[in-house]
Amino acid sequence: MKTIKRMLLLGIAMILILAGCAKSTDKKAVVVATMLDSEGSVLGQMILQLLADNDIETVNRLNFGTPDILRTALENGEVDLVVDYTGSGQYYHPEDATDTTIWNDPVKGYEFTEKLDREKKNIFWLTPSSANNTESIALKRSFAEANDIVDMADLAEYINAGKPFKLILSSKFAENQLGLLGFETQYGFKLDDNQLIILSSGNTAEMLQALVNGTNGVNASLVYGTDGALDKMDLVVVEDPKHIPPVYLPTPVIRGEVLDLYPEIRSILKPVFESLTLEVLQTLNAKVAYDGENAADVAEAYLKDNGFLEK
Amino acid sequence: MIRIAQLVKNYGNITALDRVDLTIEEGECVVLIGPSGCGKSTLLRSINRMVQPDSGSVYVDEQDILKYPPETLRRKIGYCIQNVGLFPHYTVYENIAVVPKMLKWSKAKIEERVDFLMDLTGLPKEYKTKKPHELSGGEAQRVGVCRALAADPDILLMDEPFGAVDPMTRVKIQTAFRNIQKELKKTVVFVTHDVEEAVLLADKIAVMQNGKILGYDTPSNFALHMEEEFVRSFLGLDYPVKLLKRYNIDDLLNQESDSKLTLNELLAGMLESPDGNVTIQNANGDKQTLHFEDLIHYLHKDDQV
Amino acid sequence: MKPGRISFVTGGFLVFLSWTLLAWGEFKINRVSRGITIRMMDVIPLYGWILMIAIFIVSFWFELYRPKIKQTVLLWILTIAPALCLIGISGFVPSLTEFDPNVARVSLGIGFYLFLGGILLMVSKGKGGQTRIVSTLVWVFVALGSGFADSLGLIREYNNLQDVFVRELFRHVTLALLSACLAILPGVMLGYASLRYPKAKEWIFGFVHLFQVAPTLSLLALMMIPLTALSRAFPFLADLGIKGIGFAPAFIVLFLYSLLPITSNTYAGLSQTDPFVLESATALGMTEKQKFRRIWFPLSLPAIFAGIRTAMTQNIGNTILAGLVGGGGMGALIFLGLSQSALDLVLLGTIPVVTMALLIDAIFAILEKTTIKRLGVKYDPHRTIG
């Protein structure tokens, strides 16, 4: 009996403590959340540091969860400011996304998503970066140079000439009209089953490992545009002028109520995100994912070196 | 003291108690005996409301036991069972003190009572702090008896309490119980299937079969009922010999002697001796010879001439 | 064969296997790429090898032919071996490759783990075996924290996120243990209800069983929908931290999970109490309430404790999934590591979970023993469910 009473008291005490912790502070702190990857870590840290530098209190919920969870959390108001990608708009407002060609245009895709989120959900998309973190095909630099492959048209030529080719990719990309199927239609080639290794998860790290090691004859891999591996492993991306896979520009996305409280956030983040080119992000991601550097340090170094933070 | 009137209890098709009537006088030790399933345990447990009869009544001191809460009744009745059921997380002392504590006795009074009872049952003082799992079977049952007697109840109910104890210890504990009963003179209802135990402990024996009481009398008088087939088959044709265990030489001589032999041991001695005589030493220090006729004479001394 | 000898010989065999066949570590030039295999010979010079093999042969000969000599000293010396090897492995420097010393790292390989396992088996034989096992693990932790093993990927990851690690560890433990604690009272009450109302027993057990059978992740997903609706309808809930994502759904799912072991163990404990003890309690004149409070319930405590123990150790593991729904905890590290293919980060998240589970289990084992002693009850752990 004593044990029960003791445990009950303990339980109640803990709930009270927890409730105390969970209660929000008087001036609303901005809850910043990002996705579970190195880009999420670095960009998230940049945002935290920039906001702190401008005396805006933040709550660090970086590497929050899967993209769906992150979006739901934003819509629910559990988090305030996230880093999302412009192409995601096709999933957020599917009824209105009738014209699928807008996703191949960096500007049109952004405008569509920005407008609908603002009007329907009071969610604001701020200034995006120009780095297209979308799916591409990666080749070893040596291989690309030896075979004179610069863009998808060159690759199609190589494939149609019957030369050895094996691509490792995710099932989602393989079945997507805005993915492999689109590439094949638009650039005029067709891969058969034994030229493909399909993985169920979208974990490009494994795929790039296979590419680098040449496992199972793999000489091409799915990659995301800003992946650090491109920098580290001496790989190149095959250019895609037609933008078949939707354009995914990393963008700070903020809830309307919070933007009203701190309208300066828009102007604080604008120049920083504009400065993040594809190569810059590749380098930053490489430092965190491959060199294992602390994301906060990498973010701080970048901000200071480029004058966004005082040294 | 305890009056049982027309008690009926059925378990489905089986009749456990078939309109049973029984009166137990104060200070008497009544032994209920019979084959398995005869209803003796059911009858016993009807007295402290552990069993609810279908009809009929039980009166304790002329009060219907249904008139007040069962807990009140049970605290005035001691209860011992074969498996003892000591509380494993209580010490011996705490086990014995259970009912007195519930009755809000003072600590001093409880301690005094526990000491008295442990003395009475032959348990050493050091056992007070022991836990039940440290006790032997016989010791545990003694604690059970102490616990039953703790609040000084007038009635004691015992359901084959010595059945789980080994034969040697059983004799000891039966003798101890007999002496305790001589001193305390409680009203005891005792259930057993062991005829010899009944003969040893009972003031009256009730023989039961199929929920009925076939015979209710003193052990010695039962020897006269041997014509009834069931009684004969249950008590055994050697019943008179079993009866001898009840008495000892002091009873025969009507005085104290140095010999502590029971009468059946005396009989055994007589059978061993070629002339059927046994010599013992009486209280004066004189030697006395006992003959087989003395034994017969003693056994039939109350017969009608 | 005595169990001590079996573990000694098996352990020795594992150690031998680890020496000859398997990689002790991997030297990686960066966090993700595969690297150079480190073998035992790379860590220990040749004379060291010969010495070790000689010691082992002698030791085995003693064990098999002169078992009376206890070799306790040798066993105690062995407890420090894995820790030393760990430092040795982390100090490995490849001869011909270029690398950046701040970036390159060493990962422990299966050979090391096999060696560790083998040593643990070997030292467990004989008196003081359990102490030696703990001592070996303590030495390993000391080596990790000593600063001499800093080039281990595990340590690098830790140094990278020290405060995140501490914060999420605290969050993890709180989530796991608090949800289990809160389930104690309802679980016990449900167990009691199952006994008291036999007709309800099927329903109750079916209900609590459901949450064990349903996959945790699905439950989490399911939980988010009503919670979101609830927090939108009653904003004060949101302020308290009860929203569709994060702590709240994870907490509720873990709470529901904890119900089965506690409920079924309470039921088992109550129903297996010696019926003669209960009969005596009634016959002595205790009311139902007195009987329950003083006799029946205390005697069921060992079983209930076992149920709580199961619930807590189970929760420590299940809480990992909270990392996927914004609930944080060690799961956040594990999934981050998985997404980046940084296996040392995954390890950094996993080791605390395993350690905590073992620790809680051990604490409860001690607690159970003392209650059993105090109650003098013969409790058979194999008779309970859950």
Please specify the SSE layout and strand pairing.
The complex is a heterotrimer of chains A (311), B (305) and C (386).
Chain A: H1 2-22, E1 30-35, H2 38-53, E2 58-65, H3 67-76, E3 81-85, H4 89-92, H5 106-121, E4 123-125, E5 135-140, H6 141-147, H7 152-160, E6 167-170, H8 171-174, H9 180-187, E7 196-199, H10 204-213, E8 220-224, H11 229-232, E9 235-237, E10 250-255, H12 256-261, H13 264-275, H14 278-289, H15 295-305
Parallel strand pairs in A: 1-2, 1-3, 6-7, 6-8
Antiparallel strand pairs in A: 3-10, 4-10, 5-8, 5-9
Helix pairs in contact in A: 2-14, 2-15
Chain B: E1 2-11, E2 14-24, E3 29-33, H1 40-47, E4 55-60, E5 63-64, H2 70-75, E6 77-81, H3 92-96, H4 98-102, H5 107-120, H6 137-149, E7 155-159, H7 167-184, E8 187-192, H8 195-201, E9 204-209, E10 212-217, H9 219-222, H10 229-235, H11 239-243, H12 249-253, H13 263-272, E11 278-281, E12 287-290, H14 292-299
Parallel strand pairs in B: 3-8, 3-9, 6-7, 7-8
Antiparallel strand pairs in B: 1-2, 1-4, 4-5, 9-10, 11-12
Chain C: H1 3-21, E1 25-28, E2 36-38, H2 40-43, H3 46-65, H4 72-78, H5 81-90, E3 105-108, H6 110-123, H7 129-145, H8 153-160, H9 162-182, H10 184-196, H11 198-213, H12 216-233, H13 235-240, H14 247-271, H15 275-283, H16 288-318, H17 330-339, H18 343-375
Antiparallel strand pairs in C: 1-2, 1-3
Helix pairs in contact in C: 1-6, 5-6, 5-7, 6-7, 8-18, 9-14, 9-16, 9-17, 10-11, 10-14, 11-14, 12-14, 14-16, 15-16, 16-18, 17-18
Question: Explain this structure to me?
Answer:
The complex is a heterotrimer of chains A (311), B (305) and C (386). Chain A has two domains: 27-132 and 248-305, Periplasmic binding protein-like II (D-Maltodextrin-Binding Protein, domain 2, 3-Layer(aba) Sandwich), CATH 3.40.190.10; 135-238, Osmoprotection protein (prox), domain 2 (D-Maltodextrin-Binding Protein, domain 2, 3-Layer(aba) Sandwich). The mean pLDDT of chain A is 87. Chain A has helices at residues 2-22, 38-53, 67-76, 89-92, 106-121, 141-147, 152-160, 171-174, 180-187, 204-213, 229-232, 256-261, 264-275, 278-289, 295-305; strands at residues 30-35, 58-65, 81-85, 123-125, 135-140, 167-170, 196-199, 220-224, 235-237, 250-255. Chain A is α/β, with parallel strands linked by helices and 311 residues long. In chain A, the strands form two sheets. Chain A has a five-stranded mixed β-sheet with strand order 2-1-3-10-4. Chain A has a five-stranded mixed β-sheet with strand order 7-6-8-5-9. In chain A, strand 1, helix 2 and strand 2 (58-65) form a beta-alpha-beta unit. Chain B has 14 helices and twelve strands. In chain B, strands 6-7-8-3-9-10 form a six-stranded mixed β-sheet, sandwiched between helices. A four-stranded antiparallel β-sheet of chain B has the order 2-1-4-5, with helices on one face. Chain B is of the alpha/beta class and 305 residues long. Chain C has 18 helices and three strands. Helix content of chain C is 73%, strand content 3%. Chain C has two domains: 3-152, no CATH class; 163-375, MetI-like fold (Orthogonal Bundle). In chain C, helix 9 packs antiparallel against helix 16 (288-318) and helix 10 packs antiparallel against helix 11 (198-213). Chains in contact: A-C, B-C. At the A-C interface, helix 1, strand 2, helix 3 and helix 10 of A face helix 8, helix 9, helix 10, helix 12 and helix 13 of C.
